[in-house]
Amino acid sequence: MATSPSQTAMPTERSQSSRVLDKAFVWLTGAFAIGVGFVLLAIAFRVGTDALPAIQKFGLSFLTTSRWSVNDEVFGALTQIYGTLVTSFIALLIAVPIGIGVALFLSEDYLPPRIKQPVVFLIELLAAIPSVVYGLWGIFVLIPLLKPFGIWLNTNFGWIPLFSTAPSGPGIYVAGIILSIMILPIIAAISRDSLVAVPAEIRQAAYGLGATRWETIFQVILPAAFSGIVGGIMLALGRAMGETMAVTMVIGNSNSISPSILSQGSTVSSLLANQFAEAGGLQVSSLMYAALILFGLTLVVNVLAEIIVRRFSLKL
Amino acid sequence: MASPEFATALNMKRSSMSPRTLFSSVMTVITFVCAALALIPLVAVLSYVLINGASSFRLSVFTQLPPAPGLTGGGFGNALVGTFLTVGIASLLSIPFGVLAAIFLAEFYRDTKLAETINFLTNVLSGVPSIVIGAFAYAFVVLATGTFSAVAGGFALAVLMLPTIVRTATESLESVPRDFRQAAIGLGATRFQTTVQIVLPAAIPAIITGVMLALARAAGETAPILFTASTSRYWVRSVWEPTATMARLVFDFATAPYKSQQELAWVGSLVLVALVLVTSILSRWIVRKR
Asked: What is the ipTM of this complex?
């Protein structure tokens, strides 16, 4: 105030104080915006430092051994990493074709908008149902329902390693199927968005050249929407790898690797869910190591998805 | 009798339809089947939750404590309170944080490299598995305070909700017409005044809708709660002690061997699903009304 020439009185003075307030406000919001990015860094840093003792002790053998013994303080997460990858793969195998089918169904003009909107809403609802409710449903409905099917697979195709064990109820295949239900809405929604975004002129041009509806879809529309669909699939994969509760409740939580998808298993997230609350010492550190691996895996998948989706949206 | 007729009909169809159109019809049928396949699990989950939940439902579940193993009756009054408490703490932490960040991204630095980078990081944050966020909250709060607590659970849920709130608030602010800002600035308002008195009030209904959806989802999240809020068989007395929540209760009772507890798990699921359903429909209705 002393610096300002005194003759211009109130107006400038008020505008000066409000200018300071204005600047402070912008700075404040900026700090919070950068804080969002900082949260991500904090997660990586904190989980990483807590995992350090286990990283130093086991190194990369943590990824390649499957012994998880609390008493001997020897930990390896191969079973869980394998379980995470296999359940996610099964989920994608089921959810990708059905999800793209649903997306096509909802992006073509099969239904009048009045019916289409509720269907879109219903499929979005699938994504909003809590994971633990899927788990409950999985335990009491899906497992009994799938068991005869598992037994049939085992008796008729038991010579294939994939089906070589007798199902005992919970198992990797149940987890894969429940995951497929949970990621289906993501694939359907994002694929639909990218299909709808394909300019109508392209479709009309294809029709004008005499192409049928499905020739147009396969040769024109799907290729145009391809990167968006792939981005959606990647996002769904990230979700499937990190999904915890439903998987924990139906996978059986055993610590042995079997080539058979009918056998029980566990995933990185189910390991964390089961052991964290009662863990201590090096076990906590090993669990943090496992969490870090999961974080890294999903990070790579999500960043790739993000880049693919972005490149796609720039092109249109 | 019908079979020759049918055969001629088929023949006629074959002759009138080229393989190309036939292929098209087959694919159309396949997409209809896909849509049906996608809706079956939704209908199945919802109807099982509704039937099993409603059949054991009684009003006393909202007011009583969980039954001891083997006993019948009881409820999840403490878990309901605990869920409101943890979600409330999460809201206090994440809503101001998220909305202020969104103001920066939508009002002051829109379409800049910095905003783009932060949006990117927000999307990546929303893809971090909830169980990893739980591990982070465990290290950050539980290890630091030496106890499982509602605060630790609320912190985990806040991290989980943050990206959703930033994104919905940014979108809501960006959808406020440009004229509003120009009119305010034309009248001599500062950026602070424009934002707080003009743009924010206009965006608030949309922000509330998005926040409500995020809250409903957070209430059903179990993985970040497992080893942060943990659980308790008693009523909440302090935010610094283990706290029961609905989601954790459903998980524990679903895997318990006792019938009365399993029944409560179904009723609890019904409450969680109803919460999500009602907020989704409500927010949709609000959006359509505007």
From this structure: 0.89
